[in-house]
UniProtKB/TrEMBL annotation:
Reaction catalysis annotation: a hydroperoxide + [thioredoxin]-dithiol = an alcohol + [thioredoxin]-disulfide + H2O
EC number(s) per entry: 1.11.1.24
Superkingdom in the source lineage: Bacteria
Quaternary assembly: Monomer.
Annotated family: Belongs to the peroxiredoxin family. BCP/PrxQ subfamily.
Gene source species: Bradyrhizobium iriomotense
Residue ranges crossing the lipid bilayer per the database entry: none
Keywords tagged on the record: Antioxidant, Disulfide bond, Oxidoreductase, Peroxidase, Redox-active center
Name this protein carries in UniProt: thioredoxin-dependent peroxiredoxin
Function summary: Thiol-specific peroxidase that catalyzes the reduction of hydrogen peroxide and organic hydroperoxides to water and alcohols, respectively. Plays a role in cell protection against oxidative stress by detoxifying peroxides and as sensor of hydrogen peroxide-mediated signaling events.
Amino acid sequence: MSEGQKAPAFSLPRDGGGVARLADYAGKKLVLFFYPRADTPGCTREAIDFTRLKDAFATAGTSVLGISADPPKAQERFRDKHKLAVPLISDEQHEMLEAYGAWGEKSMYGRSFLGILRTTVLVGADGKVARIWRNVRVDGHAEDVLAAATSL
């Protein structure tokens, strides 16, 4: 996936029941932040940062969704424990993760494995990928994404 191409469609379960679809956000800007695992330190900070800026994103006409491979119940526990206010999507089959380039080879402690690559995608109101952040560093990231969404 690259900037300028049409964002891949998705339809996946979300926290609290129901389904989140790309089509639900047609004509609106959308931030998709892909995080490795619910309730781990970096992922928690990232989700809290996006929640803290939720109103600013709304003012910029932008919705925010968090996506991981955690099952919906784990997403709900994560949401409730940290009072998260952004919808969390579950992609247990890795279909959306792969389509958006957020699934791939990682290494830790000299071991290679497949997993979620911390990635954020900004989709423009035209349905095209406006910006991609790969290998995200959490500190200050939500603010950078907000600035990009505001200028879009």
